[in-house]
Model the fold of this input.
Amino acid sequence: MFLIELTYKGPFSEVEPFLAEHLAFVDKGYASGHFVASGRKVPRDGGLIFCKASSKAQVEELMQDDPFVYQDLVDLRIIEFVTSREQKVWPD
Done:
């Protein structure tokens, strides 16, 4: 499992024009079965995505389609972790 952290490099007003395209990217991640949870951080300086993938390289490749990433609007951090407990609230 991976935690993807996106942190805006500038004010939200610079990111907002790309928000609809970013949300379409996120929807695509859910449809493919890679994304299992996502949302904005509080305070709103970026967001988090929980991602199922086979490798960090796969996550890095997936994220290249995010307009926030390819427009260089965010700092991207990918954290791999091994779940020791997981409640089955999302479909496999």
About this structure: The two ends are 13 Å apart (CA to CA). The chain has one domain: 2-80.
